[in-house]
Amino acid sequence: MSNTAVVILNWNGVKLLEQFLPSVVQHSPEAVVYVADNASTDTSIAFVKEHFPSVKIIKNTDNFGFAKGYNEALQFVEEEIYALVNSDIEVTENWLQPILSLFEKEPQTAIIQPKILDFKNKEYFEYAGAGGGFIDKYGFPFCRGRIFETLEKDHGQYNDTTEIFWASGACFFIRKEVYRELQGFDSDFFAHQEEIDLCWRAFNKKYIIKYCGASTVYHVGGATLNTGSPKKTFLNFRNSLWMLTKNLPRKTIVPTLFIRMILDGIAGIHFLSQGKPKHLYSVLHAHFSFYSCIFKFSNKRSSGQSENYYKINSIVYRYYVSNDNLFEKLK
Asked: Which sign, positive or negative, has the C-alpha torsion 162, 165, 169, 172?
């Protein structure tokens, strides 16, 4: 039996399965491939059964989103390594071997991400993960190869293997035992930043998260929720506040959240100046949703929060004021 499961979460994505599932099946002979379906109403299940009978299908009872969708499905997956792969990912030949070798050699490494390039412009890194993720002191995520809207061209600068703070949910490898120890993703997040929250919880338990530049995949990005969507803005702002509440060291929670709320207000004004009132509303909606759940997420805190979680104080300041738009400028 293979010790690796490639699990693709799907919701009404038959077109994406038609385009991208063939590469996953072709280039993953070491793994068992699963499609975890979030109660699709299109022909996704029929397509997989007809064209890829070797692919195992897990049927969720509703559209649970990314976080709960995986939590529900992975109860039925017993392979030792989970590779959680978006349905809009094209994998490459031998993409699994470098990552599986890392897991074999490094027992304390619990989570790994490959190099993620843009499917539509394959010479450039893709927004969701790029060359591995970090966050600043106020919870704003950034990546090697991507800071806010600036994407770097791939010229081999991130072909290394190195420790990172968070791995992208677009292509996310994790040991089954660690996933279950941490009780998976936080289902309340629904989608967006749940992988950063999970990595932060792993980090607080002294697990290692790594980026493996010897493995490459290509990601469409925005195929399930457009990058310009107000709903995406809402989920990102709300979930980031929830994540900070759960994972920050206790003595830093209040001052950090205070500064973060000021920065979110500035972001809302910026959206309004761009003629995007719906995104301003999304920021306000995110904050009211956060206030209504603050005690719930305070109660989700565990012990052992580390103060050494961030790489720099403020990526917002470095990017917009100091014009540090490339990762190497942050060093």
From this structure: positive
DSSP 4-56: EEEEEEESS-HHHHHHHHHHHHHT-TTSEEEEEE---SSSHHHHHHHH-TTSE
**Which of 229, 238, 241 lies closest to 278, judged by CA?**
229
Contact by Cβ (8 Å): 185, 75: no
Tell how far CA 200 is from the center of its chain: 12
The residue among 191 and 156 whose pLDDT is bigger is: 156
Structural tokens at position 218: 């290509």
Range of the domain at 281: 230-315+326-330
Q: DSSP letter at 227?
A: T
pLDDT tens-place string over residues 69-110: 999 999 999 999 999 999 999 999 999 999 999 999 999 999
Other C-beta atoms within 10 Å of 220: how many?
A: 20
Confidence at residue 310, expressed as pLDDT on a 0 to 100 scale: 84
203, 291: one domain: no
Task: Give the model confidence (pLDDT) of 26-83 as tens digits.
Answer: 999 999 999 999 999 999 999 999 999 999 999 999 999 999 999 999 999 999 999 9
The pLDDT confidence band at residue 307, using thresholds 50, 70 and 90, is confident
Let me know if residue 224 belongs to a domain: no
